[in-house]
Amino acid sequence: MKLVPRRSNERGHADHGWLKTFHTFSFASYYDPRHDQFGCLRVINEDRVEPRTGFGTHAHREFEIFSYIVSGELEHRDSMGNLEIMKRGDLQMTSAGTGIRHSEHCHGSKQVHFLQIWSLPSTRGLTPQYFTRHFTDDEKKDRWAHIVAPVDAPGVVEKREASGPAPVHSPLNLFATILSAGKSLSHTFQFSSAQRKGYIHVVQTSGYNPGEASGAHVRVLGAEGGPLELREGDGAYIMAAPGEELTVENAGEKVAEILLFDME
Q: Can you give the pTM of this predicted structure?
């Protein structure tokens, strides 16, 4: 297994006043050919939107777009007739397919902090769909919650609201945990005929920080070259053989919120 770190302060970054955003991959005015996409994963934006502001109505097509709410509330409206206020623990997935229009605004008096994630669909020309799921902190505490999975995977329900992972039309699984100090978790990459790709991201829960990463301290074990140390906002690309095991341990004193992707 090989890990390549993606440091928080090396991500694309913009402070627009109403929006503070970090880009793991090339996005908007930020472009870096070394970080354009990874497998089917095309966007990981860590956004903070101020009250009474947001993203006006705009169009998307041929992307799977999901939002992971960290704190605050996010109002979503779209051309499919969906209107929803999302809060911590909510995961919203839009399969844009042939095309949708939507808007996202901070709802209420507090800033909303969320991750916006896009993946490339395996099939083009899909009929647009909308899904929401909710995962409590208890469901993620010191264990992996399986929050997104391929639409044809066992246990995935292709309904607007249901239990279990949100369906995605990409060869992508997403897991989330809230890992307590001193605790560790392992993940075995899926068995398949091809080498697996992964990405791990430590959510910047201690507050907005455009400088060198601080806050929760995570150690990733199992790769050649020894352990990799990550802090909030840091991430890492993962190249693994099917069936290889990765271990994540909380090596600090603060609780760490972590996302882990397992992809073809």
A: 0.97
